[in-house]
Design goal:
Jelly Rolls; 7-stranded antiparallel β-sheet; 4-stranded antiparallel β-sheet; globular
Length: about 180
């Protein structure tokens, strides 16, 4: 898949990763989150215009040398024909969100949701707008749903409202 001259688009991929790989990623995200030896960066490193008053989003970059990264990259390449420049785990804490933006420096991005259970009242929805339209389309964060966005689609996420869980995602970016 080439992104040269691509009009903005969104593709939803249900059951994006194989069952074995999504379980591995979900387990890894939980173990990493609970590991006191792992350091996270936060959304404070992002441009202030896409943080606003969001509560912290914790971010863990998966090393290129990590075997899990290699498995993820291979599966994405086999499915989409592209390789990510980065693979990250995001932990969306209560009241965290991201306002409208377009991932400007990247040609495309992929989000895969890792929470096996997610109550729809807990927010964390992905919302996007097609070019020249005022209304947005809302997508709930279902387990193993992959959302591929190409060509600078304007999008945001609604605040996470879970009383107990952070919303866990994998974020992959392509071709900056």
């Amino acid at each position: 898949m080439s992104f040269e001259g691509v009009n903005p688009l969104i593709e939803k991929h249900y059951d994006f990763f194989s069952r074995e790989l999504i379980e591995k990623c979900s387990d890894y995200s939980i173990k990493s989150y609970n590991n006191p030896e792992i350091s996270f960066r936060t959304n404070r490193t992002w441009d202030p215009s896409i943080v606003l008053d969001s509560f912290p989003v914790l971010i863990f970059n998966l090393s290129d040398k990590d075997i899990l990264n290699q498995e993820i990259t291979t599966e994405i390449y086999n499915k989409l024909g592209i390789k990510p420049v980065s693979v990250m785990f995001y932990y969306w804490t209560k009241f965290s969100y991201i306002p409208w933006h377009s991932d400007g420096i990247y040609k495309s991005a992929l989000t895969v949701y890792l929470n096996l259970e997610w109550d729809l009242n807990w927010g964390g929805y992905f919302v996007y707008k097609k070019q020249n339209e005022d209304e947005g389309t809302v997508i709930p964060p279902f387990y193993n749903l992959g959302i591929l966005q190409c060509g600078g689609v304007m999008h945001c996420t609604t605040p996470v409202l879970s009383p107990t869980e952070c919303r866990r995602t994998m974020q992959m970016f392509f071709g900056n």
